[in-house]
Amino acid sequence: MTDIINGYHRRWWKEAVVYQIYPRSFCDSNGDGIGDLRGILGKIDYIKNLGVDVIWLSPHFDSPNTDNGYDIRDYRQVMAEFGTMADFDELLSAAHARGLKLIIDLVVNHSSDEHKWFVESRKSRDNPFRDYYIWRPGDAGVPNNWTSIFTGPAWTRDEVTGDYYLHLFAAKQPDLNWDNPKVRTEVYDLMRFWLDKGIDGFRMDVIPFISKPPELPDLSEAQKAKPQFVYANGPKVHEYLHEMRQKALAPYDTLTVGEAFGVTLAQTPLLVDERRGELDMIFQFDTVELDRGADGKWKPWTLPELKAIFTRQDAALDKHCWPTVFFSNHDNPRIVSRYGDERPEWRALSAQVMATLLLTMKGTPFMYQGDELGMTNYPFSDISQFDDLWTKGAWKVEVETGEVTAADFLANQMKISRDHARTPMQWTSGANGGFTTGKPWLAVNPNSAEINAEADLASGQSIYRYFGKLNALRRAELSLVYGDCHDLAPDHPHVFAYTRVIDGKGHLLALNFSVEAQAFNLPETAPILGNYPDGDGPLRGWEARIYRL
Ligand code: TEU
Ligand code: CA
Question: Is the pTM of this model over 0.85?
Fold first, then answer.
């Protein structure tokens, strides 16, 4: 595919829809309460029939699970709880046999402290693996004022040598030293290990954090609130990503998407401009930070703010760059609870409005397991119900010190917790939502009796089937992929209406983000797709319509 459409190079990954699986919470095949690879295998046709093209698997590697697999102990082993390498190979071939591609999570800013490199590294200052990580002499005091993204200092003094090592996340996630060429060679080798098995690409965890300024300067007062904008701006990020393209990715036909925490819109082309040979795409955090204040706490959001994100993104990226669109992943609350309306009469409709936006906005759409069922946030009411190390760490720092009341802390977590996304998939109305026959590792949402795959598929308002129709439409009508995007009413508080056109031909999308009917100037023709049985007159509550132009 080398042709050009509307100025864009045609690429399979621009036309693809990606479905993210968090293996721990997807489907448990053996009753131990933990989702696993054979569980995914058993649902492969469910995924295929949704009409998506690519599966992104969150980390499936051997890990002590401090951060649920984002702390890798062995990059070449499958996590024992998830199964075996044979299970992985079987899953990959089952996906390929159905025309599905599979990308995996590359977590190489840091490893687990139980990785053999770190086990060696901490032994002595002259250990051959010492320089695999970032150490500073212990006698000089804490090397700088950097903080962990998960709260607290980014340095831990290791008792063996008394020196400090850097960890931009948990203490059990030491940062790898990318300035050491041996580390880079190890990473490219492990990438080729998986590429040679036939995987189709990588989602790269916090990849802009890999290069650190050698002098490790202190954060200024202004930088302290959002240190990610410092961590993502090391001097050699582009050099290393270019090298990764040359030394690992180049011979393979892959999809690469970087989690670009701390990257501004203005910097985005430096990572994704196709002429530079670094990444194909990145995740910009604007859509998932829409409801966060400067302090990171929840705040209300408005529709014009959401629309403006896409307009800004479009203006910042020329036709050599390609965006992503996402509203959910394993780090974010559920779409319906956050952007839609979880009340029973609006839940499915609002999930469908968000699905329409996801699949018709410019960029490769990434959806998260359960979006197709309109799964909602978990009704957390006590700190003991959480699993996330971030929430538990913040509780210690904020509540146990008396800085924040337990009630305020929990009220905020109800809005922002990463665990909302991590509760198990709801397959049936049976015990534990059909996720496991055992005791689930994290509680299943008590609404699983009503919200589950079986019920959704039997419903006249199936969200899963609506996704299927959207996916089929997107596949058939390339203007929905490559068409120019124009917001018809940027200031309208409740209606999001936009066109996707190539040479004047394409589609008009009209989405009502409220329960009230909204009059809007719409085409006379009947819509070609919508989430109400017919589409006439004003937009009804949470109505989505797609017109052909
Ligand atoms: O996330 C990076 C990260 O910083 C996010 O946790 C971010 O702070 C959050 O989404 C803001 O809402 C990646 C992984 O996605 C996450 O699960 C890991 O915990 C983290 O890296 C460390 O590997
Ligand atoms: Ca299991």
Answer: yes
